[in-house]
Amino acid sequence: MIGVKTVVAKWYHGWLSLVRENMPKKTRIKLVFTLIWVMLSQHLLASENVIFRPDAGEMGVRKPTVQVFTLEQAVDYALTNNPDLQIAVERIKQAEARLGMALSAFYPQISARASYENSNNPAQVFAMIVAQRDFDANAMQNINSPGYRQNFRPEIIGTMSLFRGGQDYQKSKAAELGIDAAEFERSTIRNALVEAVTVTYYAYQAAQEAMKVAKDSIHAISSELKQTKLQYEAGTTLKSEVLSLDVKLAEATEAEIRAANAIELSKTSIASLLGLEHSAAFTVAAASRLSKPHLSASFDEMLAQALAGRPEVMAAARQAEISERELKAELGAYLPKADAYVSYGQNSQSPGFSGQKDNVTVGVAVEMNLFSGLNTKQRVSAAERKVKEMREVERKTRLAIEQEVKIAFLKLQESLARLHVAETSVRAAEEALRLVNEERRAGTATITRYIESEVARNKAQSGSIAAHYDALSAEIALKKAVGDWK
What we know:
By secondary structure, the chain is of the alpha+beta class. The chain contains 13 helices and 6 strands. It has helices spanning 4-22, 25-52, 56-61, 71-81, 83-103, 122-131, 137-141, 167-233, 239-274, 299-309, 311-331, 375-442, 447-482; strands at 67-69, 109-119, 149-163, 282-284, 337-346, 358-367. It has a 4-stranded antiparallel beta sheet with strand order 2-3-5-6. The relative contact order is 0.11. Residues 44-54 and 56-61 have low confidence and may be disordered.
């Protein structure tokens, strides 16, 4: 059998002979260098892959970084990265910029201008001659037929508002109040964000506990179902016992599915609140020892604290004050306006500048609007309506906060009562399971009765955990209603 190297060598020599006979010498040299370059490139590439290729063991060890959040870390991260808070910060910056725009009215306005004119109008030409300092006797002789004349005028103009009916002052004060309102809106978002992150965190932990209870129930029921089937096959128990356990297993499996879905929904909500992509790798740390929720004050005390400290109330009050300032600014349109101005420039027939032909104009202008087609009246009427609207918005905000505090207060009372009942239920269920277990050992209780008692105990424990987290969530909602995190 002919070797592969022999075949390749014969093919190469035959190809080389064909090239020598049919290809010019220069072309053959270029082809040889090209082949050498290709071979060297392939060799270097192979060497680079061998040298710089990641180690297989190293690639297997590398894993994406997983962020783990406790409740405190989640709240801090949300306050730094939540898009709603970032939007609120940008709105504060916009309000500060609007204040700067309003204050600019108190500063002189300076502008530069250059103009060019060419005319044969006798009046304009005469003005150009005088402004250019070229007036003489010949100008008087040709005053009716001066011909065309051009005028270049570079100038600097300065103006300053002396009085505008108090409009500039009122607008600046409204802009200052706008910054306060934007700050209060940011506090509102912060207050709601802390509550949302905390409640969602508790919902995630409750779903995790529900998943554990469901898994324990499935494990216990599956074990008993396996033994009951063996007993049924041996003829020592009824088929109804097997069917009952099948039903219980289906219920426990359904509870596991609901808990798994609740976990994913809670995690998705946490990712959104923290400003994370839903595909980002993160997990939620297990809750430490849970605190005991309680009512720290009476409803009247909490309501007074909310009405005095909630940022929504203060933001609504600032909006009402802003509308009043805007009304005063519109009323200023009925008063006269006074402006001072100064202009420095030169007039000449050619571009350039000469100190001998410069002109300075200084003056004060007073203006008063006598009739604007009822525009001013309608603007004032609209501003008056806006004031009334903002006062009603402020009243509505107070009513809404009072309702929110009342609902949160009642829900916490209800949650605390449910938590007490749930804890009592857990103790009763555990005692019932203990007694049924003793009856089973004595042979007086059926398997179904035992499984029912165990499932009831698991449900009681799950209900107690859910009631505890519900009470914590209700406590957080009440703190948000009072405005603890503004």
